[in-house]
Design a protein that fits this description.
By secondary structure, the protein is of the alpha/beta class. The chain binds NADP nicotinamide-adenine-dinucleotide phosphate (NAP). The site of NADP nicotinamide-adenine-dinucleotide phosphate has 27 residues, from α1. Belongs to the short-chain dehydrogenases/reductases (SDR) family.
Length: 326
Amino acid sequence: MPSFFQPPVTPLPNGVNLHGQTAIVTGASSGIGVEIARQLLEVKASTVILAVRNLTKGEAVRRSLLAAKPEAVIKVMKLDTEDYKSVQNFTKTFRAEHSELHLLMLNAGIGTLKREMTPTGHEKNVQVNYLSNVLLMLELLPLLNSTADKTGARARVTWTGSRFHGATALANKAPLQSGETVLGHFDSEESFVAFARYADSKLLCVLFLYEMRKHLASDKVIVNTFCPGMVNSGMSDVLPIYLRLPMNAIKALRARSPEKAAWIALNAAIVAGPESHGEFLGDKAIVEPVAYIKSADGQKVQKMLWNETIDEMSRLTTIPAWISKV
Ligand SMILES: NC(=O)c1ccc[n+]([C@@H]2O[C@H](COP(=O)([O-])OP(=O)(O)OC[C@H]3O[C@@H](n4cnc5c(N)ncnc54)[C@H](OP(=O)(O)O)[C@@H]3O)[C@@H](O)[C@H]2O)c1
C-alpha cells in the first residue's frame, strides 16, 4: 500500500549553470511557478520571462526576485492561456524581442469545479491546461530548434502535469460515446464531471506527448512532463469550504513546499536527458502509462486527440512538417 507521506526529494545537483540561457515560466505569479523562476535565477539563467495573466502580480514577483538577485534580467509578459489570442500575442512579442529560447516551462494551470467556457469555445480547464500549451509549444518550437542549432545543446520544454490524470472520467464516469470527438466531448455539458475535469485536462497533455514522441525526435528539443506530488500552493483555494478544510488538514501533513516542487520541475527540465522525451515523470522517475492510456479505448482516444489537435492548431499556427495525422 502506498505511504500517506510523500518521499523526500533532493535539490538540483551542484554544478548546474544556465549562464547565457533564456527561460520562459508560465504561471510565474504564484506557487510552483515563482519557485521555478527563483531557482532558475539561482543556477544563473541569464534571462527569465515571467509569463503571467495578472501583470500586477507578476511585477510584484519580479521585484521580490530582483531583491535577492539585483543583477538578474527578469521580464514580466502578459499571457492569459484562456484565450488563443493572448498566446499568439505573447509568442509574437517574445519572438520579436528574443533571438534565443533555451527553456519553456509550461506551468500555468487550474483545477476549477464549475463548468465555464473560454473565448475559444472550449471548457476552461481543457483550454488552460491543454490546448493553449500545445499552441505555445508549436509557436515557440522553431525558436527552440534554432537555439539548439546555434548552441549545439538541446533546448527543453517541460509541462507541469499531475498524477491525477489517471483519474480521468473517460475511464468510467463519462466514457467517449460513439460519434463524439474528444474535444467535443470535453466541451459538452453532459460529459462534464466536475471532480474529474482537472484529471481529464492533465490526461490530454500526457496523451499528446505520448503521441508526439512518435513523430518528433529528441535530437534538438526534449519535451517532457512531470508531477510534483501534492504541493502546498493556492490551487485548492477553489474548493468549496467543506472540502477545503479537510484538504488543508491533509496538505498540512503531506504536501511539499513549492520549493521542493520546483526541485522536481527543474530535474525534468535540466537534469533528465533524452530518455525523458515524451515521458511522464512522477517526481523524478519516468512512470509507466496509467491503465486507461494502455487500454484499447485510451489508445483510440490518444490518436483521435492527436488528429483533432492538429486540426485545431492548423487554424491558429503553422503546422510543422514532422506533424502528420495518424
Ligand atoms: N499544487 C499541487 O498539488 C499540484 C500538483 C500537481 C500539479 N500541479 C500543477 O502545478 C502547476 C502550478 O500550480 P500551483 O500548484 O503552483 O498553483 P497556483 O499557485 O494556483 O499557480 C497556478 C498558476 O497558473 C496561473 N494561471 C491560472 N490560469 C491562468 C491563465 N488563464 N493564464 C495564465 N496563467 C494562469 C496562475 O495565475 P494567477 O496567479 O493569476 O492565478 C498561477 O500563476 C499547475 O499546472 C498545476 O496543475 C499542482
